[in-house]
Amino acid sequence: MIIVVSGPDEHKLIPALKTAGGEVSHIETPVTRERLMAADIDEAKMFVLTAVDDASAIPVAKEQNAGLQIVSYAENSLPEFARPQTDFAVDPALFPVELLAEELIEWSKAKRNKRVPSNPVTLIADGERHLSGRNR
Predict the structure, then answer these.
(1) Considering only the top CATH level, what class is 2-131?
(2) Rounded Cα–Cα distance for residues 63 and 130 (Å)
(3) 30 and 72 in contact (C-beta within 8 Å)?
(4) With bands split at pLDDT 50, 70 and 90, how would you rate the model's confidence at 126?
């Protein structure tokens, strides 16, 4: 499963996603259509932003791949225009990177196998949806 990550990786999300079983392409900012295409966004299952400054790339990515799952893993809130197209907004202070990586990989696998509803359980914090952990 291809996961495209844009922005800085200060929380070490890329190695965590790889350890969890993801194939990761990383795009440095600024994110452009050309960089998205070079990262195989049209074949990716997920687009993860680590900088909300890159939110303008969300509609561009969705234009190339309508089924793309969008995740924001950043401390700051997404701009209003980007929220409707974003599946999850996750605050790194609330969700450890290793657990996030595992959850994203599992969610994507389950969604592909149609074992989960299209809107998995989320945690509301600061007025935004945030990914919650599985019931264990």
Answers:
(1) alpha beta
(2) 24
(3) no
(4) very low
